[in-house]
């Protein structure tokens, strides 16, 4: 179900690539009316997609995009520092032990699988963090996401919030540890072995070292 793939390898997965960027356009532009750019192909992309981010993608049984998120190290350019530092009091979140997760997206095709896909993505993010030695993940999210985080059992520490109600935007910090992974597994029904298999399939042992941050 889960695929980890860097942007420079995404061209080799054309169906997954095209459906992911079109689903992002549907979610962020059409449904949420965010100020994002959609090109003539119907893709929602931004400058951070040009930085060779790591995508965590859930595939539907038909091979199309079911859900995804984008991951970048905070030691480089990231949204939380470039556009949302007013929510952290001007303090930059920059550490080799903290990576940023953005563009959490669930496909409109997911249907009844939407909840399962959301849980799988978050478990995959926790698994990745543990494998490469992270301590936290940071991200910007709107108030609608809180109920998803609570249901999955991985609720962030709020660093700052702007606005009220469903339109509130926050910066959050998620702990990455064994306890978080265990809770997500218990809530979602996925086992640690399944999460480990996703990671091992994507990153052969010979390639793991290049991912490590410590």
Furnish the topology, listing elements before pairings.
Elements: E1 2-6, H1 7-10, H2 14-31, E2 54-59, E3 65-73, H3 79-82, E4 98-106, H4 114-132, E5 136-142, H5 146-152, E6 157-162, E7 169-175, H6 178-188, H7 192-202, H8 205-208
Parallel strand pairs: 4-5
Antiparallel strand pairs: 1-2, 2-3, 3-4, 5-7, 6-7
What does this structure look like?
- This protein has 214 residues and is α+β, with helices and mostly antiparallel strands.
- The protein has a single domain (2-206), classed as 3-Layer(aba) Sandwich (Aminopeptidase), CATH 3.40.630.30.
- The chain contains eight helices and seven strands; from the N terminus they run βααββαβαβαββααα.
- It has helices at residues 7-10, 14-31, 79-82, 114-132, 146-152, 178-188, 192-202, 205-208, and strands at 2-6, 54-59, 65-73, 98-106, 136-142, 157-162, 169-175.
- It has a seven-stranded mixed beta sheet.
- The longest helix has 19 residues, at 114-132.
- The two termini are 28 Å apart.
- Mean pLDDT is 93; it is low at 206-214.
How many β-strand runs?
A: 7
Strand content: 15-25%
Q: CATH H level: which superfamily?
A: Gcn5-related N-acetyltransferase (GNAT)
**Helical stretch count?**
8
**Average of pLDDT:** 93
Give the C-level CATH assignment. Alpha Beta
- How many domains make up the 3D coordinates? 1
Structural class: alpha+beta
Overall, the morphology is globular
The spatial strand order of the largest sheet comes to 1-2-3-4-5-7-6
Radius of gyration: 16 Å
Q: Kindly report the CATH topology.
A: Aminopeptidase
> How widely separated are the two ends?
28 Å
Low-pLDDT stretches are 206-214
Biggest pleated sheet: 7 strands, mixed
Fraction of residues in helices? 25-40%
Q: What is the helix/strand order?
A: EHHEEHEHEHEEHHH
CATH architecture label name: 3-Layer(aba) Sandwich
């Amino acid at each position: 179900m889960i695929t980890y793939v860097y942007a420079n390898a995404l061209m080799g997965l054309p169906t997954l690539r095209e459906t992911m960027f079109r689903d992002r356009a549907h979610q962020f532009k059409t449904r949420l009316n965010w100020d994002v750019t959609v090109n003539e192909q119907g893709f929602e992309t931004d400058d951070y997609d040009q930085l060779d981010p790591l995508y965590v993608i859930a595939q539907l049984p038909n091979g199309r995009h079911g859900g995804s998120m984008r991951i970048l190290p905070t030691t480089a350019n990231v949204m939380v520092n470039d556009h949302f530092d007013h929510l952290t009091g001007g303090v930059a979140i920059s550490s080799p032990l903290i990576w940023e997760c953005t563009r959490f997206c669930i496909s409109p095709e997911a249907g009844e699988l939407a909840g399962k896909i959301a849980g799988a993505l978050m478990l995959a993010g926790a698994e990745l963090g543990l494998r490469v030695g992270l301590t936290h993940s940071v991200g910007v999210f709107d108030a609608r996401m809180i109920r998803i985080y609570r249901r999955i059992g991985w609720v962030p520490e709020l660093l700052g919030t702007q606005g009220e109600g469903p339109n509130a935007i926050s910066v959050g910090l998620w702990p990455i540890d064994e306890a978080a992974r265990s809770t997500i597994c218990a809530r979602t029904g996925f086992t640690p072995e399944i999460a480990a298999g996703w990671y091992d399939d994507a990153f052969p042992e010979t390639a793991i070292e290049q991912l490590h941050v410590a």
